[in-house]
Design brief:
By secondary structure, this protein is an alpha/beta fold. The chain is built from 10 helices and 16 strands. α3 (86-106) runs parallel beside α5, α6 runs parallel beside α8 and α8 (294-305) crosses α10. The chain is globular, with a radius of gyration of 20 Å. The chain starts with a strand and ends in a 9-residue tail after the last helix.
């Protein structure tokens, strides 16, 4: 199968391209090679790579020629915490996706796998002793400034217990990036209904691994901590370090994409037989199923790096960050035959010495 991968020169996209090649597919990459991220064509790219912007209808249409399926990874990432960020996130992630889907429809390309994110959920799932499952409001700036980081019950302000998020949880985007990812899911659903195509959205949790971009707006927290260690400074852990996340290795994310593409040939990727052939979208958590705190991640990385530098917990915070998000990967295991393979300790040991992508 010939697959177009948008964002194919990037951190996640490049690993996906290699995984598709290893599975016997013909890969064509499409990437803007934005100067803020790339200093030209990366040396690790050994597949066809077209330079173009996903917002450019002519470039996208040309890249889709002869393609059987699309794996859409191109995006502007990060939180987007300021009002000034809104136009860029809407333009790149929402308009870019709409342009891609319209061109896929014209070329009758029936299969789509795309990158969504855990951020669509907002805060994770929580239980209150008195009120059961609740969804806390965004955390109050006054509470954060006072070091009160845990969400409280919206009914009685009592402490909450964390629970596991499943794909049927209500979507609650709390920043510009999250809002754009929810919009991508809705656009994919519209494309599927209008064309009869099959779309699989993969809600990535905290992805880490080789080729993470170093010191750019696309750097994730693991890469930021790695850069600190390499520079001889302590990683700065926000809040009290107790934020819970699911850290999933990029090779496992690549595997999830391969399995998701295979599922588009099955009965609508887990949809009912009645839905098959009429268009469908199914979304799945891509997570290890074994959450850790940000403080634990920083400590594991520092220990594996081996210089004796210890993380520092700062109490700083960012509005728009969520406290805990712990996902269930059970649906991906059942419907995509995907289970993450890289244990946390092994992955962090590798990542401590793995090459990062240098900034442009």
């Amino acid at each position: 199968m010939r697959i177009l991968i948008t964002g194919a020169a990037g951190f996640i996209g490049s690993h996906i391209a290699e995984a598709f090649q290893a599975a016997g597919h013909d890969v064509r990459g499409f990437d803007s090679l934005a100067p803020a991220v790339h200093a030209g064509r990366p040396s690790y790219v050994d597949w066809e790579l077209i330079s173009g912007d996903v917002r450019d209808p002519a470039a996208v249409s040309a890249a889709l020629a002869g393609v059987d399926a699309v794996c859409h990874q191109a995006a502007m990432v990060g939180l987007g915490v300021d009002l000034a960020d809104l136009p860029a996130y809407a333009d790149v992630n929402i308009t870019g996706t709409a342009v891609l889907l319209e061109a896929m429809g014209r070329r009758a390309i029936p299969r789509l796998v795309f990158a969504s994110s855990m951020v669509v959920y907002g805060e994770g799932a929580y239980d209150c002793r008195a009120h059961g499952r609740v969804r806390p409001a965004p955390r109050d700036a006054g509470d954060l400034a006072a070091g009160r980081f845990e969400p409280r019950c919206p009914e009685c302000a009592s402490p909450l217990a964390t629970a596991t998020v499943t794909e049927d949880a209500p979507l609650d985007p709390r920043n510009a990036y999250a809002t754009s990812k929810v919009a991508q899911e809705h656009l994919a659903a519209t494309w599927a209904r209008l064309t009869g195509g099959v779309a699989v959205g993969l809600r990535y949790h905290n992805v880490y691994g080789p080729r993470m971009p170093r010191d750019t707006p696309y750097s994730g927290v693991a890469a930021i901590f790695r850069s600190c260690l390499e520079n001889g400074t302590s990683p700065r852990v926000f809040e009290d370090g107790g934020q819970r996340r699911d850290f999933v290795h990029v090779s496992d994310v690549a595997l999830a994409n391969v399995r998701a593409l295979a599922a588009t040939d099955a009965t609508a990727a887990g949809a009912s037989a009645a839905e098959a052939g009429t268009g469908s979208l199914r979304c799945y958590n891509v997570a290890s199923g074994h959450p850790h705190t940000v403080g634990e991640m920083a400590a594991a990385l520092a220990d594996a790096f081996g210089t004796g530098i210890e993380p520092v917990t700062t109490g700083e915070y960012r509005l728009g960050d969520v406290r805990h998000i712990v996902a269930s990967p059970a649906a991906a295991t059942q419907n995509l035959a995907f289970t993450a393979r890289i244990p946390f300790a092994e992955g962090m040991t590798e990542f401590a010495k793995a090459p990062l992508r240098e900034p442009a």
